[in-house]
Queue: 4 jobs
Job 1
Amino acid sequence: MSGRSLTKLSELRRQLRTGELEAKLAERSGAPAALRQYSIDPSGTDALIKFGKHSGLQLSHIAQRDPGYLNWILESDFPSELKDVTREVLARRDGGEMSKAAEELAASFKGLGRKAGMTAAAAGELAEKLAKHATRKKK
């Protein structure tokens, strides 16, 4: 194959992988816009993926199982509106993980405080402040 043919083949593979080829075919056939490769929900905070190995799943669900897939979307040739929603889903996921980590840290700190001679109430109060501070930071 010539270099030009390989380039065209690579481009077609990319379009097939991202769902762009399906969208172009649907557009040419006069099919409705609902046949796009994704559908952003009315709130604009999640999207239904209609292509690839996670076809039929919401980004928020994919983020729990395969966050690398969302990073792949961000690094690939997808429309900016899908990338914006993907960033938001990842930020919510990261914020939730941060909150869990803060709770675990607070529980550990409470135990350490008691070992250091603090009263259980004082250690608990300090741990709660730490958890609240960490939770506020994520917002």
Note: Residues 80-115 form the longest helix (36 residues).
Job 2
Amino acid sequence: MIEIIRTILGEWKGRELPEVIERSVDLADYKIFPLSFREFLQFKGVTINEETIEYSEDETAKLMAALREYLKFGGMPEVVLAGEGKKAELIHSYLSYIEDSYFIHRLPLFSFKIKNQLQYARKVYFIDTSFLNAITWLLLPGIMTPVRK
């Protein structure tokens, strides 16, 4: 899917906008969602015996290791199938796509030392507080008033 998007954007140069839009509408029907945890286990080839999991430390350890990986890297199929060193790179590329769309901004930690700026994770800011408020309401209901359609 990412290759398709790159192809569209690469072919955009030198073409009329309506032609690009017309071509991209056909591709808009392809939606890829993150895998559920059960699908994640299938992709990774992890089989869990649900009847013995309560009694088997090996089964529990295998499930917990898979859960940690799922929570750390998520369920995007391309990331799940990627090698260990490539996962973080893919997630950073996804974040850069979101940042390029001006949905978020990532800023380095403020420090006079360049080493500290590069060493620590960047802080993520939403372009508009309404996005943050909507997410906060979903995660912490009762604290904020929901945004209605």
Note: Residues 1-31 form one domain.
Job 3
Amino acid sequence: MVRPQTAATTSLNDEVRIISKLKYLEKIEQKIEEDLEQFVYRRGDKEKKNKKGIRLTKQLIVDSCQCDSLAEVTTIFLRDKNLEFFDEPNPGSKDSFKFEDMVSLECVYASHNLIRDVYGISQITRLSELNLSFNQIQDVSPLQQLKQLTKLYLNRNKIGVIDPLCSLTKLQVLGLFHNEIFNFDQTLDTLTTLGVTYCLKEISIDGNPITSTTKFKNSLLLSIPSLEMLDDERVQELDREVAQQYFEMH
């Protein structure tokens, strides 16, 4: 939305006030879009619950990246494969393999599946990028083993607590929109640690209970001075000024 160019914008206070009103209107528009999206997503979520997913196999991995052997695999593309179990098959089974055989694997894209348990994925400790958006994940604790991750996408899951992600010291991009994150203080502490002590630069957090008001995102803007992107929008200095004024008025 383009900001109106009027004489009222000559002072910072007036400009901040106009920006705040525009953001409020944009928020209403976004909420309508999210409600429609959520309706569609919930209908799909019900269908997912009734589905029986498949287990990860060596053939599925090789086919997804068109490689002849697991040692050659650098990236796995498993979007929308009805995948529920991302772990090693039982030893001795026909399609048996070990994650340790994938010595070159760095990226896994497994969004839009039925994955609930991420323990198997957590054994691939060389991963630098992981996309598990649009799954059924609740517990992210196993992911704390993935110390090399720089990009992690967990959008559209059922995650309530993100504290274990604090150990991901190389993380630069974190996607968490539309989960069930509700604890304001713990979540802010975790994201602040990742952004101030370590290298987190981009956060997507909208669509969670903690973002039902603007307080949380304003807190992020002030707590992480190096934050560059918030909910897919580049952070401007004016955004931080608006956040500062929010807390001065509240």
Note: The mean pLDDT is 86.
Job 4
Amino acid sequence: MDSSSRFPLKSGGLGPHYNNQMSRLPFSALIGAALACGAHAQPKPPADKAPAAQESRPATPGASQSVDNALAMCVGCHGIRGYKTAFPSVYHVPRIAGQSPTYIVNALKAYQSGERSHPSMRGIAGGLSEETMKELAEYYGGPAK
């Protein structure tokens, strides 16, 4: 018996295994998608080891950032003339150079405590020590830079 009698062509000459491979395609795609989604799924930690919800708590000062690092973060947005951000909404980012040092420290503390609510600024201020805030205010306060 030759191979043509065992595997008759039903698909117009595209090969003896064409129909078999095409019927496996949706199944393979489904398995691939399930594996891809499963790779991103993370098991839920036990209740006693689950992290506490942070959305409702104000940011707390963590390990203090170096002043150079903090300056780089500030200038990334506040040092660009006419810069507008798109998160959480589109608005003009204010220049902080020339602001009162007291105003800068008070604003950073308000972001840190949650009194001011911009997500990016809360994240940045949350990692600043009071000393770093004062150093930033001294740098940016006074004549515009």
Note: The longest strand covers residues 84-85.
